[in-house]
């Protein structure tokens, strides 16, 4: 057992170095990074432009404290993000992770209503198939049962609206108008005067395996929030920064949330960084500052991480990476559908958008979801890793049966072919568990 705490029964391989879409372990084995780690690596590994930016910034300024100095990379990054975000988003604040971004989104929503003299609006409405982070506030908003685990009695109550359909037919199976009624009922039964905000992942990641709503769903949520006078928070920690083929998933519906959270792909994982993006209305109200501001961590706006994110954003723009997401996303989807046809009963329909795709795993012998004791998602991810492919195990108990495929946004034809070939071999091997 190593000193590095890890609760897995078998030791993990040790990652040694990485190039492009591949990670190499200390034994020299290569793994195609088919999920960009945890839907994080957007540019691929060891991109010279990012490494050079990190090096240049580290020689100039690694740390300055946010209440004492502004720093140039943070100032420039905020400008970049605001210019890419939906119209109406006017400010950015930096944190260190997606969880911290969720926490700040909660605190600032409550702060907003306090400044508007409505201090009873403190509840945040979420949905039960969801994940917004491991810190206690973020976990309170998350319906990820396994991660809520033993802390359920310590968390704030999760007020839930309807979850996206997990039905194999995909996004079309979610009835937008039925969900509009369900969200409205959820708000009315609590009382809109107590609800500060509604938070959703535009595409549900870890808890669902790329559960995707039909188009118009974000617009419907925006309208519901406007009708009831509550804030709309889009958790774009996974979907933001180009993952779905637009800068933000909300762009597909032409919708501006009041608050957008981003992390993961923001720095492509080269350094830790999260951000909360705000609409002008919020900033204006919070700027009254009649109560202590909810902002700030020691490392907020860290110049090194900001410089990393700037290099990532500039690369995404200058190499037209978002166009690649749409083209390669279609190619990957078609390839996955062909693989599904080769594994009837084992692999469910492919869902998702851009290069954020997912599917469910089924028991091909007995039918339906695999027995919970199998822990299908983890076992399948381990099987893929043995075949040299990294995928992300998703879904929540009891079924735990989803997988996410989310390779770097820069992936090319040849690497998609390798990904599909290794996935096919992994499914073949995984199917033997059921015979
Ligand atoms: N929000 C979403 C949608 C996520 O998927 C995650 C992490 O997977 C988080 C928030 C939390 O981010 P982090 O792990 O960086 O704290």
TrEMBL record:
Its cofactor is pyridoxal 5'-phosphate. CDD domains: OAT_like. Transmembrane segments: none annotated. Pfam families: Aminotran_3. Keywords: Aminotransferase, Pyridoxal phosphate, Transferase. The keyword Transferase applies. GO terms for molecular function: transaminase activity. The keyword Transferase applies. It comes from the Bacteria. Belongs to the class-III pyridoxal-phosphate-dependent aminotransferase family. This is Adenosylmethionine-8-amino-7-oxononanoate aminotransferase.
């Amino acid at each position: 057992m190593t000193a590095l705490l890890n609760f897995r029964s078998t030791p993990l391989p040790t990652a040694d170095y990485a190039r492009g879409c591949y990670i190499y372990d200390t034994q020299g084995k290569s793994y195609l990074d088919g999920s960009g780690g945890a839907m994080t690596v957007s540019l691929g590994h060891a991109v010279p432009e990012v490494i050079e930016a990190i090096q240049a910034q580290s020689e100039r300024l690694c740390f300055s404290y946010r209440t004492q100095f502004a720093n140039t990379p943070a100032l420039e990054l905020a400008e970049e993000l605001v210019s890419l975000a939906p119209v109406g988003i006017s400010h950015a604040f930096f944190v260190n992770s997606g969880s911290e971004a969720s926490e700040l989104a909660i605190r600032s929503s409550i702060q907003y209503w306090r400044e508007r003299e409505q201090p009873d609006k403190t509840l945040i409405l979420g949905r039960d198939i969801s994940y917004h982070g491991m810190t206690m506030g973020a976990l309170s908003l998350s319906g990820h049962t396994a991660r809520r685990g033993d802390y359920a009695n310590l968390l704030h109550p999760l007020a839930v609206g309807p979850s996206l359909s997990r039905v194999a037919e995909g996004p079309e199976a979610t009835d937008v108008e039925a969900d509009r009624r369900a969200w409205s009922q959820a708000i009315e039964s609590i009382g809109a005067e107590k609800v500060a905000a509604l938070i959703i992942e535009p595409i549900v990641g870890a808890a669902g395996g790329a559960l995707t709503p039909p188009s118009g769903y974000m617009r419907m949520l925006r309208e519901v929030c406007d009708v009831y006078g509550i804030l709309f928070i889009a958790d774009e920690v996974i979907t933001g920064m180009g993952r779905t083929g637009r800068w933000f998933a909300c762009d597909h519906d032409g919708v501006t949330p009041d608050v957008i959270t981003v992390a993961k792909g923001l720095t492509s994982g080269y350094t830790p960084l999260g951000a909360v993006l705000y609409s002008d209305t919020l900033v204006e109200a919070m700027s009254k500052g009649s109560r202590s501001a909810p902002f700030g961590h020691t490392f907020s706006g860290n110049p090194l991480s900001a410089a990393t994110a700037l290099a990532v954003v500039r690369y995404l723009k200058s190499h037209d990476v978002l166009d690649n997401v749409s083209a390669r996303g279609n190619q990957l989807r078609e390839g996955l559908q062909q693989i599904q046809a080769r594994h009837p009963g084992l692999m469910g329909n492919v869902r998702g958008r851009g290069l954020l795709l997912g599917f469910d795993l089924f028991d091909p012998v007995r039918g339906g979801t695999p027995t919970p004791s199998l822990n299908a998602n983890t076992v399948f991810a381990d099987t893929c890793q043995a075949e040299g492919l990294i995928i992300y195990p998703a879904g929540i108990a009891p079924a735990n049966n989803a997988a996410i495929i989310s390779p770097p946004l820069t992936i090319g034809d040849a690497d998609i072919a390798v990904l599909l070939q290794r996935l096919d071999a992994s499914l073949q091997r995984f199917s033997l568990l059921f015979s």
